[in-house]
Design brief:
Structural class: mainly beta
Distance between the termini: 134 Å
Oligomer: single chain
Radius of gyration: 38 Å
Number of helices: 9
Mean pLDDT: 77
Shape: elongated
Helix content: 10-25%
Length: 673
């Protein structure tokens, strides 16, 4: 009875002892096993999984370390394995041009949390890479060397928590993105107070443009912990574009927080498109600095360039821009402000800058010497990549005394390749120039529609450099409606259709100003000697019909106390030529007179004014509308002695009340009966 009573107890004790012995034996084997014997099996398994030859050519060892979990439970007592492998190589595909290996690693060390393996999760708390040489390459057809053969979806999930870099080299060769860049990484002598542990240098090409740069970063990159910021500092130059960043990156697996000071400078903002994918206009040389805040999402991320400031050409620029990645197109929105805007800094927007400026910003389309209207083509191929809602305000416009523009307000909208400025308004000469512009870039050629209204432009402010014009009280009002198809300012105006109307009434004008512009030399001398008598301007009314780029006068009459002047003819915007006849009808005496009408001919670049066979140089003229360089034949002729002509302005002013109209883009206007 006694023996049978203790037999189960002995069996239990022996079982416990056997299990303990087995565990001890396993531990002993793990601690003493030469893991180099497992390399052939491991190399074969990895080669089969990747579809590429893989080899651990150096020592393979396994050690154990205490659990690094913060949980206060039995899990703290489960040790973690730590694997170290030296001299690792992974071969490249046969097509690769970067060398025989995708990766060469001097030493790879990682720890493993064993408990998540029970839930098909591979949790790697830390991965350390020493002296890695990595070559990433993509073919023109899209195949790459970092995507491996797969037998289908895996039930296992991998989570890498920390990445530690010491020294190494990374090269990226991508003909699709036109990138060939090599980065050399090395440990800093000591970790700085800002947390920098490694330094790096980069060199290569992007879009056939030289790339160079350097920077610093943290030695330990926390990929999952959202409370551990990763310090980052970089200065990179790509051709004429410089990029400087300094700040922190948190949880890069989903960019929980990107907070950087970003400095940008370059020859033109349009050159940023290959880098950012954001459509920006052509500009003079620029530089900006602001705070870049970013966060990734399923669509790509939200990025804000917050409260940046800088200069574009000689103009200041500040504001906030937000880029929202979304489908079907990303959205750029924000507000921009310039306190002092030089009008010449807007010239690259329409290709009206100098050839030297074009060359500096990388545009090869030089303006022909004999052309006035800009021939540089708009690049609409990028318009479909993004939508935009941006408001721009220019508080003070600077361009000498000859063009008195006080302010500018523009609301830019880009949606589905249709760009509209609604409105584009200028404060001009005490009045307003109000316009709406629509450019449809869905086809090879832009379909353009434009409406402009000039209201209450003061004559004395239109001609601030003429001292005697300051007593004038007249105002200018006008309307224009045009449509066209083309790819540049020159081709659009050269194919335009519509109407233009202008009227000046209820005011006075300086005789000195009129006769200086009209080349009446005798009266200019008399006016300078004996003062500037004010001349009552009954009215000036002009009405042009525009068909296929040819401006035909319907009416162009100027009536003053001294004369009535009629203008007839054409202005050809396509050929940039003038063919106008100016017929004066005198209301008074002149020191001398010419009995023939004036003929205005020649090109926009070299206009001529002729009286019979005599040729006079035309040196007067101006343009107010931005980007619309339609010439103004502001010529008042030498007037004969003839009976006074009845004032016809009442009827003309009545006609001017009818708003101008334009046909759809590509259609010609119907002549009025």
């Amino acid at each position: 009875m006694t023996i049978s009573k203790f037999r189960p107890a002995k069996i239990f004790l022996w079982s416990i002892a056997a299990l303990a012995g087995l565990i001890a034996l396993c531990v002993a084997l793990l601690l003493t096993f030469d893991w180099n014997r497992a390399k052939p099996w491991l190399n074969q398994r990895v080669s089969e999984a990747t579809g590429r030859p893989f080899a651990i050519r150096g020592d393979l060892s396994l050690t154990w370390q205490a659990s690094q979990t913060d949980q206060d439970s039995w899990r703290r007592w489960v040790p973690w394995p730590r694997l170290s492998a030296k001299d690792i190589v992974l071969d490249n595909p046969a097509w690769a041009k970067t060398g025989p290996h995708t990766a060469e690693i001097g030493q790879l060390t990682f720890s493993l949390n064993p408990l998540p393996l029970l839930a098909h999760r591979i949790v790697v708390p830390s991965l350390e890479l020493d002296s890695p040489i990595v070559a990433l390459e993509r073919k023109p057809d899209g195949d790459n060397n970092w995507t491996f053969a797969s037998s289908g979806p895996s039930a296992w999930q991998m989570e890498l928590q920390k990445l530690v870099l010491a020294k190494g080299t990374v090269r990226l060769l991508d003909p699709i993105s036109k990138v060939d860049i090599k980065a050399d990484i090395d440990s800093l002598p000591a970790i700085t107070t800002e947390g920098y542990g490694i330094g790096w240098k980069v060199a290569g090409t992007f879009n056939k443009t030289p790339v160079s740069g350097d920077g610093k970063a943290g030695a330990v990159l926390s990929l999952q912990n959202s409370s551990t910021p990763f310090p980052l500092q970089a200065n990179v130059r790509i051709g004429k574009t410089s990029i400087g960043v300094k700040g922190t990156l948190t949880k890069p697996s989903d960019l929980a927080a990107l907070d950087l000071r970003l400095k940008l400078s370059g020859a033109s903002m349009s050159n940023l498109y290959p880098l950012t994918g954001i459509v920006l206009p052509a500009t003079p040389p620029f530089s900006t600095e602001g705070r870049l805040i970013g966060k990734l999402n399923s669509a790509g991320g939200d990025w804000t360039y917050d409260r940046f400031s800088g200069r574009v050409g000689s103009s200041d620029l500040s504001g906030t821009l937000e880029f929202i990645a979304q489908k079907p197109r990303s959205l750029l929105k924000g507000t921009l402000l310039s306190n002092q805007l030089r009008l010449e800094d807007l010239a690259p927007l329409i290709g009206a800058d100098s050839n030297a400026s074009k060359a500096n910003r990388g545009d090869g389309a030089a303006q022909p010497a004999n052309k006035v209207l800009p021939v540089e083509q708009f690049d609409t191929s990028r318009w479909g990549s993004i939508d935009a809602d941006v408001k721009f305000t220019g508080r003070k416009i600077i361009r000498g005394k000859e063009l008195p523009i006080q302010d500018l307000v523009a609301d830019l909208h880009l949606k589905d390749s249709v760009l509209s400025l609604t409105p584009l308004n200028f404060g001009v000469a005490g009045g307003n120039l109000i316009s709406t512009i629509k450019l449809d870039g869905n086809n090879k050629q832009i379909k353009a529609e434009m409406k402009i209204s000039a209201r209450h432009l003061k004559i004395k402010q239109l001609f601030p450099t003429f001292e005697s014009a300051q007593a004038s009280l007249g105002e200018v009002n006008g309307d224009a409606s045009l449509s066209a198809v083309g790819n540049s300012v020159a081709t659009l105006l050269g194919a335009s259709n519509g109407e233009l109307k202008t009227v000046i009434n209820q005011g006075t004008i300086s005789k000195f100003l009129l006769e200086a512009a009209g080349l009446n030399i005798g009266n200019v001398v008399i006016s300078k000697l004996f003062g500037d008598k004010q001349v009552k301007l009954n009215c000036l009314a002009s009405d042009f019909a525009v068909n296929n780029g040819v401006m035909q006068t319907r009416t162009f009459v100027m009536d003053t106390e001294d004369a009535v002047i009629n203008v007839q003819g054409q202005i050809n915007l396509a050929q940039e030529t003038l063919a106008l006849q100016i017929k004066p009808e005198s209301k008074g005496m002149r020191i001398f007179s010419l009995r023939s009408p004036l003929h205005v001919t020649g090109s926009f670049k070299n206009p001529d004014v002729g009286v019979d066979k005599g040729i006079l140089a035309l040196k007067a003229g101006g343009a107010i509308a931005l980007g619309i360089l339609a010439p103004v034949a502001a010529v008042i002729p030498l007037i004969n002695i003839t009976p006074a002509q009845e004032n016809d302005c009442a009827a003309l002013l009545a006609q001017q009340k009818q708003k101008p109209v334009a046909p759809p883009p590509g259609k010609t206007s119907r002549p009025k009966k």
